[in-house]
């Protein structure tokens, strides 16, 4: 209460309500830290939903998985037929020009096990891309990384030791197609041609790796965005 004879206090002025923000004002606000870091990450520039400029990365991953599945199934059928009829795929040392056999039983069993494992990995990738389960694509992605690293080591070995190409050509059978024509080529031109061929293969494999990785990110991001959070109170549910 005011003192007797003193000035009466001024009435409190009502505070104006803030004006509703327009869409431009909301867009001008800084983005959250997590989204900004995601957009500024070095891997964000390689992210794309298109594959081979004509289809989605999910469709491309399914096609790639089916293609690898068909190839490994054909290889498995050849290996099984070779196990059932060893004389059909057996080459003597005279035909090979060396003191070793083309494929023995141990190598055939190992190759068969690898083919079965590859069929399982490719089937998992195809199913994961079709049903949008990101975790099922990881084994196929790891196989692609291993295959890319193995081909890179081959290219480095050819670059560091170019004489190994001539040694490898001499160990081929005498009836190998175009053996004499290949050996008559200049060694430098032969090394450059092989390195160019391996570089094209590595570039193509790297592009396929990026497509599978983008498919994994797409499925993982879509699954995370589908999570709904419900906040319940006594009388409301949001």
From TrEMBL:
Biased composition (Basic and acidic residues): 23-34
InterPro entries linked: LAPTM4/5, LAPTM_transporter
Keyword terms: Cell membrane, Cell projection, Endosome, Lysosome, Membrane, Transmembrane, Transmembrane helix, Transport, Ubl conjugation
Presence of the UniProt keyword Transmembrane helix in the record: yes
Superkingdom of source: Eukaryota
Subcellular location, record wording: Cell membrane; Cell projection; Endomembrane system; Endosome, Multivesicular body lumen
GO cellular component terms attached to this protein's record: cell projection; lysosomal membrane; multivesicular body membrane; plasma membrane
Membrane topology label: Multi-pass membrane protein
Transmembrane segments: 66-83, 110-130, 137-162, 182-204
Compositional bias annotation for Pro residues: 8-19
Region feature (Disordered): 1-34
Function text: Required for optimal lysosomal function. Blocks EGF-stimulated EGFR intraluminal sorting and degradation. Conversely by binding with the phosphatidylinositol 4,5-bisphosphate, regulates its PIP5K1C interaction, inhibits HGS ubiquitination and relieves LAPTM4B inhibition of EGFR degradation. Recruits SLC3A2 and SLC7A5 (the Leu transporter) to the lysosome, promoting entry of leucine and other essential amino acid (EAA) into the lysosome, stimulating activation of proton-transporting vacuolar (V)-ATPase protein pump (V-ATPase) and hence mTORC1 activation.
Assembly mode: Homooligomer; upon reaching the lysosomes. Interacts with MCOLN1. Interacts with NEDD4; may play a role in the lysosomal sorting of LAPTM4B; enhances HGS association with NEDD4; mediates inhibition of EGFR degradation. Interacts with PIP5K1C; promotes SNX5 association with LAPTM4B; kinase activity of PIP5K1C is required; interaction is regulated by phosphatidylinositol 4,5-bisphosphate generated by PIP5K1C. Interacts with HGS; promotes HGS ubiquitination. Interacts with SNX5.
This protein's name: Lysosomal-associated transmembrane protein 4B
Organismal lineage: Eukaryota, Metazoa, Chordata, Craniata, Vertebrata
Annotated gene: Laptm4b
